[in-house]
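Hello again,

I reread your note about wanting to compare the complex against the isolated chains. To keep things tidy I'm splitting this into two emails, and this first one only covers the full assembly. Below are the input lines as submitted, including protein chains and any nucleic acid or small-molecule components. They are followed by the predicted structure of everything together. The single-chain runs will come separately.
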Amino acid sequence: MREIWALATKDLRLLARDKGGLFFTFFFPILYAVFFGTIFASMSGGGGSGTKIIVVDEDRSEASASFAASLEAESQFIVTTMEDRAAAQEIVRKGGQTAFIVIPEGFGEASIFEGEPMELVLGVDPSKTAEAGLIQGLVTAKAYERLQDLFLDPDIVRTMARDSIASIDDSDLNPAQKLIFKSFLNSLDTFLVQAPEAGVFGGDDEADGEGGPAFNPVSIQSVELVGDEGPSPYAIAFPQGIIWGIMGCAAGFGISLVTERNKGTLTRLRTAPMGRSTVLLGKGLACFLTTIAVAMVLLLLLTLVFGVTPSSLPLLIVAVVSIAVCFVGIMMLLSTLGKTEAAAGGIGWAVMIVMAMFGGGMMPLAFMKGWMITLSHLSPVKWSILAMEGAIWREFGPADMLLPCGVLVAVGIVGFVLGSKMFDWNEH
Amino acid sequence: MITLDTISKRFGTLTAVDGLSLSIEPGEVFGLLGPNGAGKSTTIAMMVGLLGPDSGTVRIDGGDPAEAAVRATLGVAPQSLAIYDDMTARENLTFFGSIYGLDGPTRTRRADELLELVGLTDRARDRVKGFSGGMKRRVNLACALVHDPKVVLLDEPTAGVDPQSRHAIFEIVRELRAQGRTVVYTTHYMEEAQKLCSRVGVIDKGALLALDSVEGLIGAHGGESIVRIERDEGEERVQTAEPLAVLQRALASESTTGVRVDRPDLETVFLNLTGRSLRD
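Full-complex prediction:
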C-alpha cells in the first residue's frame, strides 16, 4: 500500500506543477458551472435579474395605475416608470432597456361592450427577439387579468352596461342590431344585480358555504416537485461543471500513463519490486483523489458562494465516490487508446466529448430527441449527473441512488480491469 | 552473481538475442559491447525481469528476476532518461526510494549521499527539466542507486552527454567498483569499455562473439601492432607482434624522421570479429 501511496502522491505533485492541467481540472469546471448557472438564472428570472422594461402611463387613471402596478409586481420584469413616451422609445432604441409599454390616454375609460377596446403600445429592442415573445405574452396576460377584474366587479360592469344602453340609440347600428344589444345589456344588468346575491362572483368563503364562485372555469393548482422554490440554476449547472473537471482528470491521468510508458519511467517502475497492478493502482488512486478534490472544491463553492445546500450529504458522498470510481476505470481505458501522447489525448477527448454530448454534459437531456435520450443511457456522464442531481436537489432516497451509482461503479470496475489487461507496457 | 544460460528472445521475425550465455562474477564491472541494435538492451531487459526469455534462463544470485525480491537487489539506469522532469533532483531520488520501501530518514540520507556522488548537491532543489543532458544522465544513474543495490545495470549511461558529465559518470562507476558492487555496463564506445570494465562481452546480432578481459580480447582478436616509420623517401608500414624490436631498429637508422605505433584496441577486435566498425 505504501508503494501505491508513493506513486499517487508523485502524480498529484506532478499535477500540481502542471498549470495547464490544473486549469482544466479545477478552474475550467468552475468557469463552466458559474457561466451556465448565471445564464440559467437569467433565463428563469432567478437571482434577482429580469427583463428591463419602461412603463409610460399616459392615462393616469386609477385603472392605468393598477395595470402599471401589476406589471411592476411581475417578477420577470424590472420596471422603470417614465412620463415621456418619446424618451422611453429612444432609450429602448439605443439598447438601454429591453422594451417600453405605453398605457395610452383612455385606457381606464375603455368599455368591453362598445367603442374602442383597451389599448396598449409595446416596443421591443429588435436585438432581443427571443425576449419579445415573452414580454408580449406577459403583458397580454396582465391585460386579461384586468378584464377578469372588471368582470369580477359587478358595479363596474353594470356602469359599463348602462352607459352602453344609453349610447345605443345614438350609434350607427341598424334597428335590429340595436334591439339585440339592448336586450343583451338589459339581461346583463339584471344578471349583475342578482348574481352577487347568489355568490356567483365568490366572496367570503364562510358566507358562501358550499358551491363557491360559479365563474371559475379552470382551477389550476401548482405542485412543487422539489422544495418550495425549485432548484437553484447553479444547482443545475454545477453537476455539469464537475463532470467536465472529472473528465479532464481522467483524460490527464490517462495521457500521463502513456507519457510515462513512452518516456521510460514506467519501465523503471516495473523494475522495482512491485507488480504491474501496483503501478496502475497508484495511478488510479491519484486519479480518484483528484476527482474527489475537484468535486469537493466545486460543491463547496456551490454551497458557500451560491447558497445551495445538498438535499442529502451522505448520498452526495456516495454519488461522488461512485463517479470517481467510474472515471478511474475510464482513465484506464483511455490510456489504451493511443500509442503516443498526442494520439491518446486526441482520441481520449473525442470519446469524452461524445459521452458528454449524449450524456447531457453539454446540453440538458430535456432538449434532446427521443433516440438521443435512449442513447444517453450508454453515457456515464448521464448517470454521473443524475447521481449528483439526485443528492443535491432531486431529493433522491438511497433506493433511487442504487441505479445510477451501481451503473457508475460497474463501469469503473469493468473499465479498470479491461484497461489493465489491454494496456501496452512496451515503450514506443 | 549473474548467469545467462543460452537465452533467446524474438520479436516477430527478428531474433534480438540468440542463445546468449555468460556469467558475471560479484564485484565485477562487466561491459557488454556492441553496436546499436546488437541486442544489449534486450539482454538487460531480460536480466531485470522486464522481458522473459523465449528460451534459456536468467539467474541473479540464484534467483529469477521475475520475482520482486530478486528485483529489489537490482538497480537499473535505463537508456531513456527515466526520471520526472517536473520534479526536483531530490524529489526524484526520494520518490524512487519510496517505491523500494525506504523509510523517510533513509530516503533523505541516501538522496544526500547520491546527490553528492553525482555532483548535484547544489542543484538538489531544482526541477530536472532545467538540467543539461549530462546532468539528467547523472540523476538517472543516481536513481538506480538509491536503494543501495548489489547489482547495478547501466544501459548506455553516457549516451548524448558532454565530456564533463561523461567523466563524472566514469568516476561514479569506478566508485561503484570500489564499493564492491557488480556492474553491468552496456556501451558502443570501446574506449569506455577499455577504461572501466574488467571483462567485456562483444555482442552482435544477438549473439556473443567473444568474452574476456580487455587485454585478453585484444591479444586474441586484435591482431598485430602496426609501426609506421617515416623516412626521407616516404612512410614504411610494418605489421608486427614485436613492435618494440621494430621501433628500436627504426630509431637506429639515420634516415628515420619519425615513428608511430598503432596498437590494436577493442575497435580492432570488433572489426576483426564482424568485419564492421562499432559505429556502423
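For quick reference: Residues 205-209, 216-222 of chain A have pLDDT under 50 and may be disordered.

B.
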